[in-house]
Specification:
alpha/beta; 7-stranded mixed beta sheet; single chain; about 35% helix; about 375 residues; 17 strands
Length: about 375
């Protein structure tokens, strides 16, 4: 049986960010990714101010800025029964907003890791607790066993590690999303803004990545304008990503136990949320920074060599969970309510949700002010 210090399951944004944050603090980790290549689903992300602060700590922000335009504003358009009812323009964030290709972010994070950190084609099928040491043991599909002193699950909405923690399965939102990007060789000519159009139970959005590349999404599979239909027709077919939207409810984020022994989770495995306020990726980046900082604060520069007991690791994870829980409850609540507003058909339900949003989140972009702090 192979024995490792820190094992991260999942080579997506959360897993790579956590591993890189640990590396920046001088702590070694191993990332197990089931795919034979680094995952590229999702097309692109809108990264807001808080996400850029986390990327700055990880040391890859400047590299990612080279291939992403700054977004100056957000434009919301409301259409009812084919008639434009409302249009508003405002700041997209309290600070910096840019669209980033998922491939660009994954490559930037992965390339900054030491060689050998990322193990591709390593799919885990189960996690159990070692009776002698109480440390977790992972069984891989190839029947190899790995014992880890720390196990961090970043393996998405169907997380094996979440099941070990006995977290409830994520719930379906009842809608699907189609995402992709379209390349305009001669330039797209769109403003540097994020435009979001709501029409009945449909939301479509457009986010320029560069002067030639545009990221777009459609929720509920219906487009409101001919311009959008043309953009989708011209898109890169390989970039299209269809998914059933899922989430972990705010009350579960508030009450779930995110540690069992020396095992925890981060990213979607911990707080999967809809795309309605655009914080899923940035929250995962924050997770990585905070978790690395908490582990380093207990383990010191000697890393796992300085561990005298499981208690130190558990205290570090508990500190991480405490720090993240308050932030994540706010994000998941605002995302959940915004999603309910989009899906609501009853005027009474819409009014209730609007009132709750106004009471709880008077500054609707206040979530972008958050700073996860230094490593």
């Amino acid at each position: 049986m192979e024995e490792l210090d820190i094992v991260i399951v999942g080579g997506g944004i959360a897993g790579l960010a956590t591993s890189l944050a640990l590396h920046r603090k001088g702590i070694k980790s191993t990332v197990l990714e089931r795919s034979e290549s680094v995952r590229s689903e999702g097309a692109a992300f809108g990264i807001q101010t808080n996400g850029w602060l986390a990327l700055q700590q990880l040391g890859v922000a400047d590299k990612l800025r080279l291939n992403s335009l700054p977004i100056h504003q957000i434009r919301d358009v409301m259409i009812e029964k084919g008639i434009k009812r409302r249009e508003s323009v405002g700041p997209a964030s309290h600070g910096e907003v840019r669209g980033v290709l998922r491939n660009d972010m994954v490559r930037a994070l992965a390339h900054a890791l030491p060689i050998g950190t990322l193990r591709l084609g390593s799919q885990i099928v189960s996690v159990k607790r070692d009776e002698a040491t109480s440390f977790p043991i992972l069984q891989l599909r190839n029947r190899q066993d790995i014992k880890a002193k720390v196990l961090i699950g970043c393996d998405g909405s169907n997380s094996i590690v979440s099941k070990f923690l006995e977290l409830n399965p994520t719930k379906a939102l009842g809608s699907r999303a189609v995402r992709g990007f379209t390349n305009y060789p001669n330039g797209h000519g769109f403003q540097q803004e994020f435009i979001r159009i709501k029409m009945d139970n449909v939301v479509s959005g457009r986010l320029p990545i560069t002067h030639n590349l545009v990221f777009w999404f459609v929720v509920m599979l219906k487009c409101p304008q001919e311009e959008w239909k043309e953009m989708v027709k011209k898109c890169d077919i390989d970039s299209i990503y269809t998914s059933r939207l899922r989430y972990r409810s705010p009350w579960e984020v508030m009450s779930s136990k995110f540690r069992r022994g020396t095992v925890t989770v981060a990213g979607d495995s911990m707080h999967l949320m809809g795309p309605f306020i655009g914080q899923g990726c940035s929250a995962a980046l924050e997770d990585g920074v905070v978790l690395a900082r908490c582990l380093w604060s207990k383990l010191g520069q000697d890393g796992m060599n300085n561990v005298s007991s499981r208690k130190q690791i558990q205290e570090a994870i508990d500190e991480y969970v405490r720090e993240r829980r308050g932030r994540l409850v706010g994000l998941s609540t605002q995302t959940y309510l915004t999603g309910r507003l989009i899906e609501a058909s009853s005027p009474a339900t819409k009014l209730l949700v609007i009132v709750l949003l106004m009471i709880l989140f008077r500054d609707h972009i206040g979530h972008t002010r958050y700073d996860c702090g230094p490593l």
